[in-house]
Amino acid sequence: MTLLVDAGNTRLKWARLSGGRLTGHGAADCLEAAWAQGLEAAWSRIPPPARVLGVCVASQARRGAVEAVARRLWRRTVEWIEPAGQGWGVINAYAEPALLGADRWAALIGARRCAPQGACIVDAGTAITVDGLDAEGRHLGGAIFPGRELLVRTLSQGTGRIEMGGAFQAAELPGRSTEAAVYGGARYGVAAAARALVEQVCPACPPAGARLATGGGADWLLPELPGAWQRRPALVLEGLAAVAEAS
Ligand SMILES: Nc1ncnc2c1ncn2[C@@H]1O[C@H](COP(=O)(O)OP(=O)(O)O)[C@@H](O)[C@H]1O
Ligand SMILES: CC(C)(COP(=O)(O)O)[C@@H](O)C(=O)NCCC(=O)O
Ligand SMILES: [K+]
């Protein structure tokens, strides 16, 4: 069994790969202080994997904490996948391929496998990313925009008079309090921005291409986007599964 890990900036997701199937999906909220202890407790209940394969776009400290858990529990080294110029049927659009987010790279590999006709991919995570992929596996490039929660944190940290804490709240506009104005602004602003990104990137994708949506924010974002989207909650892990099976 191979343990696949997607370490994002908000949550760490994992699943077990055996016999070509993904099972035992789990997630840890890395914004919580004791997330690493929680991860160790969750991972201590799964059978020891032969390999641990992952992508990480979070800090070096978080990457190190994941490595420490795998080492302590199973004496395993985590194999972190980094984007290359090309691989697993995908050609990276970046002039400096290593600078593409490793989670975006894995999602493109996952999309290549489930949508050989090409795809437009939305990942609604900490950031919202939109990427295009053509029928030859060429990555067409993409867009990056702050997600809802990140936008609220940014407003809170970058201003003197806005203090926001706690979970994101649904709010209507016009808002009659700072909280309502900020939550409503983030909700409608991010939705409008995501629509604009999709409208820019999708026309560059093959007309018959799939529209694939992933990320923890997909449930709220999808109804805001034009067109019919296929939910692939584990698209990054699907890409990692393709890598694991081929190496
Ligand atoms: N239980 C949860 N904990 C944290 N975020 C959640 C949860 N459920 C949904 N979300 C949403 O998912 C987003 C994180 O999605 P995810 O794809 O895991 O991001 P990342 O890969 O950047 O860590 C959050 O910004 C939030 O909108
Ligand atoms: C764009 C991202 C911040 C998305 O991260 P996430 O929301 O999944 O935590 C991440 O893929 C990243 O740091 N990318 C590097 C920059 C780039 O892709 O060009
Ligand atoms: K992500």
Automatic annotation (TrEMBL):
List residues binding substrate: 94, 101-104, 178
| Keywords for this protein | ATP-binding, Coenzyme A biosynthesis, Cytoplasm, Kinase, Metal-binding, Nucleotide-binding, Potassium, Transferase
The places in or outside the cell where this protein is found are:
Cytoplasm
Pfam families in the record: Pan_kinase (PF03309)
* Pathway(s): Cofactor biosynthesis; coenzyme A biosynthesis; CoA from (R)-pantothenate: step 1/5
| Active-site residues, record numbering mapped to chain | 103
Extract the InterPro entries matched here: ATPase_NBD, Type_III_PanK
Q: Quote the cofactor binding remark.
A: A monovalent cation. Ammonium or potassium.
Which positions in this protein are listed as binding ATP? 6-13, 126
The top EC class is transferase
List cofactor names only: K(+); NH4(+)
Protein residues bound to K(+) = 123
Domain of life, per the record?
Bacteria
Q: Does the keyword Nucleotide-binding apply?
A: yes
What is the similarity comment for this entry? Belongs to the type III pantothenate kinase family.
Q: Subunit comment for this entry?
A: Homodimer.
PANTHER family this protein is in? TYPE III PANTOTHENATE KINASE (PTHR34265:SF1)
What is the official name of this protein in its record?
Type III pantothenate kinase
Which organism does this record belong to?
Halorhodospira neutriphila
